[in-house]
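Students often ask why inverse folding is considered easier than folding. One informal answer: many sequences map to the same fold, so there is more than one right answer. In these notes we will look at a single instance of the problem. The structure comes first.
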């Protein structure tokens, strides 16, 4: 059975990435890849990975509507499961992401896990969530290492799913994150830097108190 884990495979070597993905696919909800992987391996990697499992493309799209559309069109042939977009450029930009995603899931970043975000975007989480909800995205990204904020976000998120990074390497605990509202936990370095990624995923699953 697939777990609540989204494996953030921020891996630069194509073969290493595909090996890790193949070894854990039956255990994780999806993979997530980010700019470092796309820039290192080329965008074809999205198609290769999609043949193994669900791929969430963490592009953190944050531009004017026309550019957002052009970015998403670059990946249309590769069948990703979904896209991660920023909300802060505004309603029109996010609407264009949802339109261009053409039925694929869109996850909107409403608060971030790094310390610096506390002084900037995390202050505006309510407005960002309202916008994400009005536009009708599938899910939001919210920090799995800030339980108080996660709880507050959980209370106002409506039907949107919460996917939460910040687990493990950034100090967050999977059970606390899930208890406070995370539907899925995003785990990167803890998995892909492990000597045995499959065993690490199995261990995380065992520690999740369902
Ligand atoms: P790690 O578990 O190695 O810290 O990886 C977390 C992943 O989630 C990275 O790809 C990072 O870019 C992403 N991420 C994050 O850490 N915090 C956020 O607020 C939003 C993210 O997308």
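Output (designed amino acids):
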């Amino acid at each position: 059975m697939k777990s609540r884990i989204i494996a953030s495979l921020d891996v630069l070597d194509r073969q290493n990435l595909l090996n890790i993905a193949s070894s854990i696919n039956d255990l994780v909800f999806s993979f997530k890849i980010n700019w470092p992987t796309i820039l290192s391996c080329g965008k074809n990697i999205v198609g290769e990975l999609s043949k193994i499992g669900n791929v969430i493309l963490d592009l953190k799209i944050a531009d004017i509507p026309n550019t957002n559309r052009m970015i998403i069109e670059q990946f249309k042939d590769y069948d990703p499961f979904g896209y991660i977009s920023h909300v802060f450029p505004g309603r029109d930009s996010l609407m264009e992401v949802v339109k261009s995603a053409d039925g694929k899931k869109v996850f909107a970043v409403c608060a971030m896990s790094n310390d610096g975000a506390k002084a900037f975007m995390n202050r505006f989480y309510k407005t960002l969530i309202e916008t994400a909800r009005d536009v009708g995205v599938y899910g939001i990204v919210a920090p799995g290492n800030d339980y108080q904020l996660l709880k507050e976000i959980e209370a106002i998120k409506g039907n949107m799913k919460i996917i939460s990074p910040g687990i493990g390497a950034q100090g967050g605990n999977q059970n606390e994150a899930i208890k406070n509202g995370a539907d899925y936990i995003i785990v990167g370095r803890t998995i892909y830097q492990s000597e045995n990624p499959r065993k690490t995923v199995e261990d995380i699953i065992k520690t999740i108190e369902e």
